[in-house]
Amino acid sequence: MDSSTEQRLQSRRLFTEFLDSDEGRGEYVGRVREMMARKQTRLLVDVADLRLFNAGLTRKCVAGCAHAGARAGPGAGGPGGGREEEEAGRGPASRLTPPPPPLTA
Q1: How confident is the model at residue 19 (pLDDT cuts 50, 70, 90)?
Q2: Is 66 within a domain?
Q3: Who is most buried in 35, 53, 83, 87, counting CB within 10 A?
């Protein structure tokens, strides 16, 4: 297994630990259950909660979101571009996923 795959798996493990932890005041376990019951695919995560859990993971996730948003283009519902945060009344929330693998030439 190459180092980028190992790093990606480690980020996924950390993110899963975050969702299961009480750092987010225990709210994410319930949100994930609701999301799955409604067959939804996006979870709003407060960046401050993630930062409290692991600042390094937060940087990777935010960088991954920025990278994904740049690929999707403007108006494609990328990070910070949708009204979901406003409608949910959650202010500084972002959709976060573990970062994508680095591009190789």
Answers
A1: confident
A2: yes
A3: 53
